[in-house]
Each structure stands twice: as C-alpha cells, then as structure tokens.
C-alpha cells in the first residue's frame, strides 16, 4: 500500500454510553488500530441514557469478534436470551403474533407459511400467524431458551436482553484492560482547524484533549456532529409519532405469572403507543413509548403503572427521544455513532445494531480513508450511504407496524396510520394489500431493505393486513401439509431445545 497521506495517531471517543464503549472495545481489538492511541472521555454529570435492553442477533457476532465468552458477559450483565418479539393487541382485538429470529431449518415450514399468508391476503383461507412456522415462535410459546440442549447441525439465531449500564461497564473494562485511556470530564469547548476538522476538545477542568480523529458518541446531545460541525439532523417526527418514554423496572419475583415471558420481548400496543416488557435475569424492564402530542407524561405514567398493577406512587423514569438521523454519519474527521447519529424508536430494538454496523463499516474503510484525498471522500460517502440506507430500511419496517394497524380507538391510532411513508414502503404495502406479487417488491428493493422476507411476512400476516373485499384465485397449502409444517417445527424444538409437551403446540 502507498504511503498514507494521513497518519492518524490518536482517536478520541466522546461519550461513555453503550455506543462509546462499543467503539472503544471494537477499535482496540482491531489490529488495524494497534498503533493508534485510543481515549474515551465522558461526563460524570451528564450520565448515559441507561436503557436499550434488547438486541437483535447481530450482537452475538459483535461479542464473538471481541472474543468475549457468552456465559461471562451474560452473567455480569444480568442477560437473558431473546427468541424474538411478541406483538400484542396491535389491531386492538386482543390478538398477538410473534416476530421470530430465523433458524436455518425453518426454511421449509416458513415456505408453507408464506404460501398461506399469500392466499389469505387474496381472500383465500383463514388468518395465518407466523408463530408455529418458525422454531423461535415455538420456543417462545413454550418459554424455552434458544440455547440448545444438544449439538445443533444448523445455525440458530437469537438476541439478548441485558442491563444496558452493565453492558457498557463490561465493555469499558474490556477496552481499558487493552489500553484505552479513560478520562472523566465535561467537554465545554471544541476547537477546529481551518478545514473544520476537529482539533481538540477542552474539558471544564481546563484540560485540552487533542486527537486526529473523533468519534461522537455523546448521545442525544450530538455534541460534535450537530453542535460543532452543524451537520443537519433529519427529524422523523412526521413519520413516527412516538417521542417519549416512561420506564419502570420490576423485580422478577413480584411479577404475576401471566405477564411473565422468559425468553422474548413483549410489545403491547396501548392507547398512545406501546409497552415493552423485557425479561432480564434478575428483573423485567418495562417502558411505555408514547407520543407526547397525544398524551401527557402523567397519563402515560398512570397507564404504565396501571397496566403493570403497580401503585401510583412507584417511582418512574421519563425519557425524551430525538427520533431521526444525522444527514451524515461521517463528516470531516468525526464519525457519529449511537444516539448522536440516529434513533428510530425502540420497537424492534435496532439502535445497538446500527451502532455495530456503523463501526464495522468504519473499520473496513479506515485504511483506505487514510490513502489520499479521493479515497478519504469516497470512504465517507460509502459509509454515509450505507448507514443511511440501513436507518431508512429500519424506519420503513417500524412504520409498517403502525400503518397496517386496524386500531382506531384513539386519536393516536388514527394519526398513526396517516403519517408520511416512503415510496418504497407504499409500494410494498400496496402490493400486499392488493393481492399483487409481494415477493417481486421485496426482490426489487432487496439491497435497500433492513428486514428480510420472514420478517415482512410475519408482520403483515401477523397483522392480518388485507383488503377484506378482495377475492383472487390462490390456493392455500392443504390442511394436512400445513399441520406437518407446524409439527416439523415443534419436533425440532422438542428435540434440540426441549423436551416439552408437543400436544400443547396445536
Ligand atoms: C426509550 C429507549 C429505549 C431503547 N431501547 C433500545 C433497545 O431495546 N435496543 C437497542 O438496541 N437500543 C435501544 N435504545 C437505544 C440505546 O439506548 C442506545 O443506542 C444506546 O444506549 C447507546 O446510547 P449512546 O451511548 O449513544 O448514548 P448515551 O447512553 O446517552 O451516552 C452518551 C454519553 O455521552 C456523554 N456526553 C454527552 N455530552 C458530553 C459532554 N459535553 N462532555 C462529556 N461527555 C458527554 C455522556 O456522559 C454519556 O457518557 C433505546 C433508547 C431509548 C431512548
């Protein structure tokens, strides 16, 4: 490789939340950064968001790459396994459906589900739920862990639930042990070069921190990207109504059995948003994500506590959410990650996944970035495009939960259906609703979508989204084969993850 134009010797990470410590751990573990001094500065006064308790399956790959032993971090972070998300009452009819993580062996039963879902939306056959056609759905139904009881001849996907503060602490210890310098202080001023690259951060103590490259992980504050580099923030307020959350943890022992799901997240639709219930090893994290344009904080609190059978005097925590995306994730010599870069409400627990993706892209482009001016610009463009694509892909999928809902029992749900959606989402939903070729639309947008076929089908069939007047010729799979597909999933789960009583599965 040619001599580097840039010679990056120091990287400074601003922010010690999950995002900041993920960056510190990932960089210090990467041989490309071995000669670079990595520092992380965080404020003792501002604090971290402290939520973000659910992950997608990608987190496993992140931890594996760091060489972190699953049993070790899970124990220290009070983590539990996650098979997927149960969506409860999203049509206001008390029904629920499961959004599963996908196993390799689900391919055949999933195909039966897809055909039946395609028949149903064309007015043929009964409503079809994804739950029994995916191993994760069966696991969730029987409260079984996605960790197998015997060696698996196939890959299984699972996520985690965890204590967000402990996860950041765990990664902090990992990073500091490997040489990351940890500094406590409030950044009160920032100096820039003539080309607007950031040069140094000054702390309230007067200490000046110089670096060649900066990672903005300062949370909703977006100190460097937004406040100093003035990169515009694209708000999603017109697309997603929820902008607030009220949270309360409950002890595992004080939770009535009926509310207890051990290995999956529950997302229950409420009057002006939805409630998350995330089972950790020692407690359940609960939070009502709502629209402050539709209800006030007091009403949200009351609803949350009432739903959980908790006394009105139970202390809760209120959070404001800055929902949207920085128009660039990488600008000048600053990379924004975590909440400083983007946040789409927590419905599918995707924020940490976006952080991971951004870091992985950055590390893959870093060497090239230093080559010359052209490579520098190209690297930034490449990263910015791919991060934006992922964020917009997630946004489409999240929005689909609201715009397909039949609920109309509050202003919120009426408004939630009438938000601004992308042309891509419009075409996907139209194709499904009109009984057209939905798979063609998925194929057309394949490179741009954050979610794949099983997720889209689970959502749209789970919501029974369709035109009830429509009657098009399309044959569902026979009842016998459908039953066989379900039994196949049940047998896999029973054999590798069970045993459980298979007669319960029908
Ligand atoms: C209600 C809610 C629910 C969520 N649920 C999920 C979920 O289930 N799954 C998921 O993946 N994500 C979830 N998220 C997102 C998740 O919480 C974040 O992605 C994750 O915690 C990373 O946050 P962060 O590190 O970017 O910011 P923060 O945790 O806010 O950390 C910001 C850091 O910057 C520092 N800082 C800021 N300004 C300064 C300054 N001037 N000087 C010095 N230090 C400064 C602070 O001290 C702090 O250390 C949720 C978010 C919300 C709001």
The beta-strand count equals 21
Parts with pLDDT < 50 across at least 5 consecutive residues = none
Total helical elements:
15
Strand order of the largest sheet: 5-4-14-15-16-13-17
Which oligomeric form is depicted?
single chain
Distinct ligands:
flavin-adenine dinucleotide
Beta content comes to 15-25%
Structural class: alpha+beta
What distance separates the N and C termini? 61 Å
C-alpha Rg (nearest Å)? 23 Å
Secondary structure: helix percent: 25-40%
Whole-number mean pLDDT: 95
Shape: globular
Biggest sheet architecture: 7 strands, mixed
Task: Give a structural overview.
The chain is an alpha+beta fold and 506 residues long. Helices cover 36% and strands 19% of the residues. The protein has 15 helices and 21 strands. It has helices at 18-28, 58-65, 70-76, 107-121, 135-141, 164-177, 223-228, 297-307, 351-369, 373-403, 411-417, 423-433, 438-444, 453-462, 479-496; strands at 10-14, 37-42, 80-82, 84-88, 96-100, 159-161, 181-184, 187-192, 198-203, 208-210, 213-216, 233-235, 244-251, 265-270, 273-279, 283-290, 317-320, 324-326, 330-331, 334-336, 342-343. The protein has a seven-stranded mixed sheet. A six-stranded mixed sheet has the order 7-2-1-11-20-19. A three-stranded antiparallel sheet has the order 8-9-10, with no helix packed on it. Helix 1 packs parallel to helix 6 and helix 9 packs antiparallel against helix 10. The longest helix has 31 residues, at 373-403. It is globular. The model has no long low-confidence stretch (mean pLDDT 95). Flavin-adenine dinucleotide (FAD) is lined by residues 14-20, 41-43, 46-49, 51-55, 164, 186-187, 217-219, 221, 223, 245, 287, 319, 321, 338-340, 346, 349-352, 355.
């Amino acid at each position: 490789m040619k001599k580097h134009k840039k010679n990056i010797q120091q990287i400074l990470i601003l922010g010690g939340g999950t995002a900041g410590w993920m960056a510190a751990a990932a960089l210090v573990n990467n041989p490309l950064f071995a000669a670079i001094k990595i520092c992380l500065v965080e404020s003792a006064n501002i604090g971290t968001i402290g939520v973000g308790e659910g992950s997608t399956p990608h987190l496993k790959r992140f931890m594996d790459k760091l060489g972190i032993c699953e049993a070790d971090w899970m124990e220290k972070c009070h983590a539990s396994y996650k098979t997927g998300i149960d969506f409860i009452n999203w049509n206001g009819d008390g029904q629920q459906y499961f959004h599963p993580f996908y196993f390799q062996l689900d391919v055949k039963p999933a195909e039966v589900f897809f055909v039946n879902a395609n028949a149903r939306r064309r007015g043929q056959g009964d409503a079809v739920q994804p739950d029994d056609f995916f191993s994760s759905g069966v696991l969730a139904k029987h409260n079984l862990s996605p960790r197998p009881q015997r060696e698996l001849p196939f890959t299984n996907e699972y996520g985690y639930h965890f204590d967000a503060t402990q996860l950041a602490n765990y990664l902090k210890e990992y990073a500091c042990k490997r040489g990351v310098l940890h500094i406590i202080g409030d950044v009160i001023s920032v100096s820039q070069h003539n080309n607007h690259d950031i040069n140094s951060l000054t702390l309230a103590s007067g200490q000046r921190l110089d670096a060649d490259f900066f990672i903005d992980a300062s949370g909703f504050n977006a100190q460097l990207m937004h406040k100093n580099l003035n990169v515009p923030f694209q708000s999603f307020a017109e697309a997603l109504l929820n902008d607030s959350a009220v949270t309360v943890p409950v002890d595992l022992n004080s939770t009535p059995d009926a509310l207890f799901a051990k290995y999956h997240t529950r997302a229950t639709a409420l009057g002006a948003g939805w409630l998350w219930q995330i089972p950790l090893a020692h407690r359940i994290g609960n939070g009502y994500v709502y629209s402050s344009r539709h209800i006030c904080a007091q009403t949200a609190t009351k609803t949350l506590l009432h739903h959980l059978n908790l006394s009105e005097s139970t202390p809760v925590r209120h959070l404001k959410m800055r929902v949207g995306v920085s128009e660039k994730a990488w600008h000048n010599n600053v990379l924004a990650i975590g909440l400083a870069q983007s946040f789409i409400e927590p419905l599918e627990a995707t924020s940490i996944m976006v952080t991971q993706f951004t870091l992985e892209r950055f590390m893959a482009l870093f060497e090239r970035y230093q080559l010359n001016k052209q490579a520098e610009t190209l690297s930034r463009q490449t990263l910015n495009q791919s991060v934006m694509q992922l964020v917009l892909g997630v946004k489409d999928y999240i929005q689909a939960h609201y715009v397909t809902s039949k609920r109309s029992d509050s202003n919120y749900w009426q408004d939630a259906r009438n938000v601004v959606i992308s042309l891509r989402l419009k075409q996907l939903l139209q194709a499904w609703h009109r009984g057209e070729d939905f798979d063609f639309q998925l194929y057309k947008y394949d490179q741009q979508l954050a979610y794949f076929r099983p997720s889209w089908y689970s959502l749209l069939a789970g919501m029974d989204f369709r035109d009830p007047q429509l009657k098009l010729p399309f044959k569902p799979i026979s009842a016998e084969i459908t039953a066989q597909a379900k039994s196949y999933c049940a047998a896999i789960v029973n054999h590798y993850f069970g045993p459980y009583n298979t007669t319960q599965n029908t």
